[in-house]
Amino acid sequence: xxxxxxxxxxxxxxxxxxxxxxxxxxxxxxxxxxxxxxxxxxxxxxxxxxxxxxxxxxxxxxxxxxxxxxxxxxxxxxxxxxxxxxxxxxxxxxxxxxxxxxxxxxxxxxxxxxxxxxxxxxxxxxxxxxxxxxxxxxxxxxxxxxxxxxxxxxxxxxxxxxxxxxxxxxxxxxxxxxxxxxxxxxxxxxxxxxxxxxxxxxxxxxxxxxxxxxxxxxxxxxxxxxxxxxxxxxxxxxxxxxxxxxxxxxxxxxxxxxxxxxxxxxxxxxxxxxxxxxxxxxxxxxxxxxxxxxxxxxxxxxxxxxxxxxxxxxxxxxxxxxxxxxxxxxxxxxxx
Length: 336
Ligand code: ATP
Known about the structure:
Layout: E1 3-14, E2 17-28, E3 32-36, H1 43-50, E4 58-63, E5 66-67, H2 72-78, E6 79-82, H3 94-104, H4 109-122, H5 138-149, E7 156-160, H6 168-183, E8 187-192, H7 195-201, E9 204-209, E10 212-217, H8 219-225, E11 229-235, H9 241-248, E12 257-259, E13 264-269, H10 272-285, E14 290-296, H11 300-308, H12 327-335
Parallel strand pairs: 3-8, 3-9, 6-7, 7-8
Antiparallel strand pairs: 1-2, 1-4, 4-5, 9-10, 11-13, 11-14, 12-13
The structure holds adenosine-5'-triphosphate (ATP).
């Protein structure tokens, strides 16, 4: 299989700041790579280099088979890019925005119009297509921006935090749209701060911090790195905790941890639901009443915390980004 994106040893410095410190990335054709990392990890810098908006200080990259440094113009013909801040002209209608992009790509009048209508339908914007986009919700603008990135049917797509700041409903709508694209064979590199997004969309995930890859694998492999499943049991009467422990510990793959103040115990297990059923049977036979019981699997949030020492951000609460620039200014910088 060919690689849609391959980057080796990318380095980018801004004076004293090392934004990328030898970054390696690979997106096999037809797959989705999720790039996760805390604020300032280097995600946007990597995307800007791969989409030819920025030159690295060292390293090399090929996108859709073309060298990013040797032939940036050809790379731009083969990619679609959609960013954090939807770049739509709000005085034009949705249709006009897409038609304009088609003309910029020299699709021709007829083909450009047909493509605009086709994309409006694909992105569930048919009814709103003839309204100025200033009347659109945030989710609709993002969908239109993504549609704009697809006008020329690029085989490789870059999405930089495509759902940051969207409400949960619009986010799930966007995920559905992205999944349809990927099912159609588009190769995708996606940066995100939402671990659920990576879990749902990405075939492979790289976690980056300080401009380097600190972990990679699929979601299950990454979760396995931070430990396996655990059974958590809360007994109704604290005095029963010791008895519960001696009944359950033989079922585990490690020692029970007791939290007496919460009347609970945590037992590392392998075998999930089967072990949980056996644990419940033993506790029931012994007449031990429970307040709560559950099987807990590590989430990507646990992975992120253990790797980076940061809790993952669910959204950027601060309107200014890590560089202290308001979003609009940064968006303008992206298109320059
Ligand atoms: P975020 O999630 O906040 O977008 P990120 O992972 O995309 O973060 P980058 O925007 O790539 O991170 O930034 C990586 C580092 O490089 C940060 O320390 C950032 O402050 C710095 N940096 C990025 N662009 C510039 C610039 N134009 N001038 C100076 N420093 C910069």
